[in-house]
């Protein structure tokens, strides 16, 4: 029976590196069946039901981490989903141009592998051990890894050398962040039975309403925006996405900088 390895990525550089790993693994360990989706998950493709099945049925999880995606909601979601069905020792972040000290938050609970020969060999050995009767004996494994490693090392080195030093844009738009959070909300909603959960679309409509009122000058005082901000914050809490608070605060700050003082403020 094939050993299923789920390869998680986020961002263009991470996608290229994940694809290189996906192509390399079955060559070195022929019993391995990698799962890798080529669509850019940052753009909110509707792949929910398919990817959830793969997350639940995988034997090993590999998370391709670069300097631009360690705080990606997609990376955090997939790593968390993998950890629910696998032992933590079977969820591993591969660090490309990073060190463990560069990580923060939920990702720090997992073991990580630097993309270096000795460290990466330990990861592949873990995958080999999960192969059951199909796994390679130690001496055979050593020979196979020694033969295949230079191919992966060369490809990864070329990808890293040809990448933009600045990586992908770090200052993503508020709209991109909101759409990404909403996509995760929809995916979580489809897999929860709670009837009390508030649909994230409501929060999006309220955020859009605030933006529209601000643009049209419908709000003329800080008191007016406070009336809308408080229930919006409560909805963000109930929906399980406190990250939206940051978006709301930024919008409020922008409004207060752009608006003109009124008699109501004095």
How much helix is in the residues? 40-55%
- The CATH C-level class name of the largest domain: Alpha Beta
Q: With helices defined by DSSP (H or I, 4 residues minimum), what is the helix count?
A: 9
Shape: elongated
Mean pLDDT equals 75
Helix and strand content put the structural class at: alpha/beta
Strand order of the largest sheet: 2-1-3-4-5
Poorly predicted ranges: 40-46, 166-172, 262-266
Strand content: 5-15%
CATH architecture descriptor text of the largest domain: 3-Layer(aba) Sandwich
- State the order of secondary-structure elements, H for helix, E for strand: EHEHEHEEHHHHHH
| Structural domains: how many | 2
Number of strands: 5
* Multimerization state: single chain
CATH topology title of the largest domain:
Rossmann fold
Radius of gyration: 22 Å
In whole angstroms, the N-to-C terminal distance is 74 Å
Reported for the largest beta sheet, the result is: 5 strands, parallel
Q: How does this model look, in words?
A:
- There is one protein chain.
- The chain is of the alpha/beta class and 266 residues long.
- The protein folds into 2 domains: 160 residues, Rossmann fold (3-Layer(aba) Sandwich); 92 residues, no CATH class.
- The chain has 9 helices and 5 strands, in the order βαβαβαββαααααα.
- Helix 3 links the parallel strand 3 and strand 4.
- The chain starts with a strand and ends in an 8-residue tail after the last helix.
- The relative contact order is 0.11.
């Amino acid at each position: 029976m094939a050993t299923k390895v789920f390869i998680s990525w986020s961002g263009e550089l991470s996608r290229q590196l994940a694809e290189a790993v996906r192509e390399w693994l079955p060559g070195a360990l022929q019993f391995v069946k990698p799962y890798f989706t080529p669509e850019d998950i940052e753009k909110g493709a509707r792949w929910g039901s398919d990817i959830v099945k793969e997350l639940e049925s995988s034997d090993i999880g590999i998370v391709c981490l670069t300097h631009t995606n360690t705080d990606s909601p997609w990376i955090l979601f997939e790593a968390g989903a993998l950890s629910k069905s696998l032992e933590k020792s079977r969820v591993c972040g591969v660090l490309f141009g990073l060190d463990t000290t560069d990580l923060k938050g939920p990702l720090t609970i997992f073991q990580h592998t630097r993309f270096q020969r000795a460290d990466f060999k330990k990861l592949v050995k873990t995958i080999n051990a999960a192969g059951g009767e199909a796994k390679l004996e130690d001496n055979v494994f050593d020979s196979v890894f020694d033969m295949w490693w230079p191919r992966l090392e060369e490809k990864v080195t070329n990808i890293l050398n040809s990448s933009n030093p600045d990586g992908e844009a770090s200052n993503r738009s508020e709209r991109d962040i909101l759409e990404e959070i909403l996509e995760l909300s929809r995916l979580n909603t489809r897999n929860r039975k709670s009837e009390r959960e508030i649909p994230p679309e409501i929060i999006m409509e309220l955020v859009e309403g605030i933006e529209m009122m601000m643009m049209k000058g419908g709000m003329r005082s800080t008191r007016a925006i406070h009336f809308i901000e408080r229930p919006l914050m409560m909805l963000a809490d109930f929906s399980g996405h406190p990250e939206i608070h940051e978006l709301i605060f930024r919008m409020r700050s922008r409004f207060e900088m752009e608006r003109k003082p009124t008699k109501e403020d004095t």
